[in-house]
Design a protein that fits this description.
The protein contains no helices and eleven strands. By secondary structure, it is mostly beta strands. Strands 2, 4, 5, 6, 9, 10 and 11 form a seven-stranded mixed β-sheet that branches. Strands 1-3-8-7 form a four-stranded antiparallel β-sheet, with no helix packed on it. Strand 9 and strand 10 form a beta hairpin. The protein is globular.
Amino acid sequence: VQLVESGGGLVQPGGSLRLSCAASGFTFSTYGMRWYRQAPGKERELVATITRDGGSTVHPDSVKGRFTISRDNAKSTVYLQMNNLKPDDTAVYYCHVLILVRGYWGQGTQVTVSS
């Protein structure tokens, strides 16, 4: 199983970024996917969940209305569109998949929101 995130960077407050997570080594279309983030000195936080067919998504109140998770099963890729970014969104963002009882993580991509 391999998860490779990309798309992070430095953005000004109010800006947008789209993160991508390319998956391989498992049958992507049969598993739900998640995005997490971890800011310095804080615990890892779940920011988005999507079902295997993309028909249902969940976002916590902290990002609801600003972040949108989506997926392209033909490309084995999950996305996180982030709009109206705030300094508090600064973190390393990780994608995650749970297969049977084991969780798999990517290496993460840094998102920094600063003027």
